[in-house]
Amino acid sequence: MSTGTLNPPLGPDDHVLGPEDAPVTLVEYGDYECPHCGRAHVVLQTVLSGLENEVRFVFRNFPLAEVHPHAQVAAEAAESVAAHGGNDAFWTMHDALFENQDALELDDLLEYALVAGVEPGLVSSDLTSGALTSRVRNDFRSGIRSGVNGTPTFFVNGRRFSGNWTDPIAFTAALHEAARAGTHTAR
Fold it and tell me: Exposed/middle/buried for 147, CB within 10 Å: 0-12, 13-18, 19+?
């Protein structure tokens, strides 16, 4: 049963943006085709740019494939890019997917992979073979264990965030408060 706590805590497979010693760890469970996640992406760009030394941001896949038919393959493509190109390539792909939510067909995904610096043939091969399906599934299962039932869902220092993420000012204030509290339960 979920308690609103991040489960599992951060590990070596997580995609991390920001300093390891940041006082706040913000985890998003997201879906690349979800319009709410697309709005959150814009808000997060604003919030994170103002808190770059205070927040470590982590993205975990939670594709809602029943309502977003391209979400699973987009998540697998992002994981393929990470596997072949590393953390920076992942974040380039992550941004491209959210900035182009209406263009998530295979050809689009391969184009974004190329922009991220990864050979599209490698990504195509991974998608065909299902090489990253279990990676995405593991993120999804961790979301279920953590009490995620929709996207986006955020965790701040290991606890489910129930505040206002739609307003950059309110979200920034909540993250500042978490930084002042100084708890690091998400490590």
Answer: middle
